[in-house]
Structures are given as structure tokens and as C-alpha cells.
Amino acid sequence: MASFNENDRASYQPWDEESFQSNRKARRLSTLPRWMYRTLSQAAWHCSTRPYLPDDDAELWDLAECESREQWEMYKESVRPMFTPVVINGVKLLGHPRLVRDWDKLAAKRRQMRDIGSKGGKAKATKRLAHAKQKLSKKELEIETELETESEKKKERDFKRHLPTNLPAKTDGGLVGAAPKMPDSKSSNLGQEWREKLADEIQETANLKGVVFQMPLPEKVFVFAEQLAQYAYRGREDAEDIITTWVSDRPFDGLQNPNVAFDKMEAELNFKLNGLKETYEWRNKKAQDARTPNVESARDDEPIDATEELEEIV
């Protein structure tokens, strides 16, 4: 016997119309009682006592979508016997064997999927933790030996990272531009490692929702992730955050194959990509302006007198 819990919700109700029509008791009902019986059978999966009905006429007439309490009173003697009275946790309810059986099957499937996701997630988490500890120990050694120089190198890397690098040079050494090309993640060992890391991040996020993707993930996931990383401030790290957040927020109820959701990922995240492009172009323009001297007030053949400009400013 299934227990009821207000927190348990079914994304869909399996309905066998042939079974309903072949029920002799249901076929003997006249039109209105049979309609009430069908409506209550469907309401049982979505009311607060799911998959049971409350054994209370004050609620049943409303769940049966009767026009009035009087209409329910006229036909309830024909409808009530279609359900079996039960008591669960001291609450009087009405059950139906077929509805409870279908509910138990769905609950068992949910538990199975959660167990699969949990086992896979724990194994991957253990592997990633060991890898992270190894990387951390190496980083600690670097910090101990090169703390001051590393800080300066990082500042220099960050500055260069936000400047365009794949465009023709100007006479003053500056670049005008568009986003730098990132190497295809399939073309190097480092790229393959990132693909595996991204796939792990996506699956671990999905595990929290009881969703298990089919591996390997579609190629379109990595292609779009590379587009995001090409313009993002932190590159692939930002791309991972954007895609895992999308997985966390997106509903997957009713999808027999959750991978189908990736068909809509690019369309649903296109606004993010456009925003990253606009921000990137703005940073490029700021960098270009910082490199271009202001010589509008000077002739090409006459040097700028810095002393005169300083006097004018004062």
C-alpha cells in the first residue's frame, strides 16, 4: 500500500483508456456518474492526498468538478463504491487498486534513477577530489617558492587576456578587434580533459535533480561551450558555470531521454552568448582607446608641445 506525501508529485499519470473502458462496473454507470468517476480517478494523482482521494463529500464534489454539492449528492451513491475506503496514518481516504499500483511503479522507478545517479556522482566526486588534492599540493609548492613573482605574472596574464590577440597590428602596436580563436577542444589532451570535466560537472548537477544523461553528451554541448568560453571573462570556467546553471534551472519532467533537452540549450542560452559578445567588444574598444594617442590638435609634421598643453590645463 502506497503512503501519501504532499511533497511527492508526479510529472505525468499513466492512463490506460482500454482498461477504463473494459471495467464492467464503470460501463454500467450512466453518463454523469461515469464522468465523475473518471474525473476523480485523475484528480487522485494530483490532490493533496495523492494517490488517494479524501473520504470527505465536502472535498469530493469539488474534485469531481460537479456544478454544485447537490449534483454530487444525487450521484455519489453510484460513484463512491468505485473506490475502496482505507485509513492511513489515521486519515480516512478512498483508494483504487489500479491507481495505487501505477503510483508504486512510478515511485520505484524514481528511486532506481536516484540510486543510479547517486552512485555515479559519488564515484566521480571521489575521483575529482583526488585529482584536486594532487593539483593543490603542486600549487602549494609553487606558492612557497614563487609567491611574489607569481602575483606579478598573474596580473600580467590577466591584462593580456582581455586584449584581442588575433587581429592585424596597427602602426603603434595596437590591435583592433574581435574575439581570439580558441583551439578546438578535440585537438589536444588539455581540451579533452576539459570536455571530460565539463561532462562531469553537467552530470553532477543533474544528479541533484534525479536526472541521468546518456554519455557521451551530444557534440553540440561542447561546441556551444567553446563559443561561450571564447567571449567569457574567465573563459571555460564561465562557460561551465553558465551551462551547469542552465541544467540546474531547467525542468526535465516527462522526458524519457533527458539528452533531448540539449536540442534547446543553444536557443535558450543565446541571450547569454550575445551578452558576452557585447561585453567583449566593449573591452576591446576600451583597450583600443587606451592605446590610441590623441593628436587631433597637432599637425602631422609638428610635434606636440607638452608644456603648452600643461599650461592650458592649469
Strand arrangement within the widest β-sheet reads 1-3-2
* Class of secondary structure makeup: mainly alpha
Relative helix content: 55-70%
- Average predicted confidence as pLDDT: 76
Over the alpha carbons, how many angstroms does the gyration radius reach?
32 Å
Q: β content, as a range?
A: under 5%
> How many strands, what sense, and barrel or not for the largest sheet?
3 strands, antiparallel
Plain-language structure description:
The protein has 2 domains: 1-133, no CATH class; 162-291, no CATH class. A hairpin with a 2-residue loop joins strand 2 (84-88) and strand 3. Helix 3 crosses helix 5, helix 4 (57-63) packs across helix 5 and helix 8 runs parallel beside helix 10. A 3-stranded antiparallel sheet has the order 1-3-2. With 314 residues, it is mainly alpha-helical. It has 11 helices and 3 strands, in the order H-H-H-E-H-H-E-E-H-H-H-H-H-H. The chain has helices spanning 17-22, 24-28, 31-43, 57-63, 69-79, 97-161, 189-207, 219-231, 236-249, 265-291, 306-313; strands at residues 53-54, 84-88, 91-95. Mean pLDDT is 76; it is low at 163-179, 295-302 and 304-314.
